[in-house]
Amino acid sequence: MKTDSIFYRIFQTLPASFFELINLPATEADVYDFASVELKQTAFRIDGLFLPINNQPQRPIYFVEVQFQKDVDFYARFFSEIFLYLRLYASTQPWQAVVLFAKRSIEPTEIEPYRYLLESPLVTRLYLDEPVDIQASLGLGIIKLVVENEKEVPTLARNLLSQARSDLPDARLQKNLLDLIQTIVSYKLPRLSPQELARMFSISDLRNTRYYQEVRYEEALNYTTRLLERRIGGISQDLQVQINKLSVEDLENLGLALLDFTSAADLVTWLNNQGSSDA
């Protein structure tokens, strides 16, 4: 699973979940922006950075790192990134470092050079496989879904879907979360069939996910391309490029229109007319 990108999406979509994770009020998210930062002229990238909004010097910068694989050099790299950031951006604000380990066993054991930092209030280490009370928090529930046992994933996913529908009045946020939950489920259960996925999600939920839209597009494109080949023979590369840019709805319309085609010229005319109508 691409955990870095998953957690980036979680914190970008539900930034309050980060503050709940470190036992701070969810409302703290209202005064922070979340970003991933690449440090100039280096190979370093900080997974996540919560920066106070509107220049509030009393609030700390939060450096966030997600670690799902054992890496003996992890702390050397992480603290290097932090201090390099502070140097490059001449920051005078307080800071906090938060590390999210998949489990305690992957944390480096050779920590002597960093012991004072790790034992100070500056650093919070969390182990995502250890029990967390998620009953009241949709965000924490989604984080738990990332590390949940495969057998428990369907049940937790269904509960989160139900909670998202009931707790989120914002339709766009609800759609983003449904898509995020579906993405995590697909990573966790890669052998899950479309039928099993449909049983987990309601039909309306599934239609709103990126997964459904991608599958629908691929099916429409493949079906239309096969019909064109049967109807008018081979398609030039230029025409195929134009067809690939069509929306699902346009592909479905083309699938109906091509029943009357007799040559590639008919396809060219249809595509030109489509371009004119979109202009």
From TrEMBL:
InterPro entries: DUF2887 (IPR022573), DUF4351 (IPR025587), RpnA (IPR010106). It comes from the Bacteria. Pfam families: DUF2887, DUF4351. Residues 213-271 form the DUF4351 domain. This is DUF4351 domain-containing protein. The lineage of its organism: Bacteria, Bacillati, Cyanobacteriota, Cyanophyceae, Nostocales.
